[in-house]
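Section 3.1: Structural characterization of target chains.
Under the original work plan, the team committed to producing a structural model for every single-chain target entering the pipeline before any wet-lab resources were allocated. The record below documents one such target. The sequence was received from the expression subgroup and is listed exactly as submitted; it comprises 232 residues.
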Amino acid sequence: MCHSCRIRVVRQNIFPENMWVFMKFKKISLLPRKRFWHAYFIAWITSLISILLSIAPFFWTEVVYDPTIAVLTATLVCLIWYTYFTYRAVNNEPMTQLDFGFGYQKEPVATLSLDTQNQRNHNVLCVIHFSIQTYRGEWPMPPPYTGQTDDQLHLKPGEAFHGSIHIQELIDSLPLDKRTVVVTAEGKWQDEVNEEGIIGPKNWSLDLQNQSMRRLYSKSELDAELLKMKTA
């Protein structure tokens, strides 16, 4: 199948977001963000060594409990964790964030557009998987939308990837009553400090004939739309 694809990358400004966004967690993890792992483990190791050195004499000699040693050990442990949290506060940059934008226009040439923007201050490698499900199955996509690592994008801070795919051939191959498709966009990213994340998946029901689009927010909505599309 023949596809045409045009891609351009432009620089955009980074706009600060509401800080409350970063206080909404989907799950609680005992580990800090990946960029702080080395400091986190150093803090734990030095704390344990301090405690072991303070109590070690009790294991092989008869030593009288000395509150001064206990106070000094507690102070040292507090100083270690104070240093750790100070380091985190000083280097607490917002986590890398990417997002998708999706659009469709029927005239003059039927075109799907997909925007991916790097909204943070780190260089990012991103792999995008963009798929179109018809009643016959998935329509093959051109690079860089295949989800393969060979098609990864390099986004600098504030840059956005703008891609468009001409799908007139797809529309012409579908019967008039079968021109509703499901579009899915998802991706994986890795930034320069080795943090990783995923985008999506985001799903839309798209009526290619009437140029209408509806977001599918849940898996049940997606399954119902796929079933309706194949049985209609």
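Residues 1-28 have pLDDT under 50 and may be disordered.
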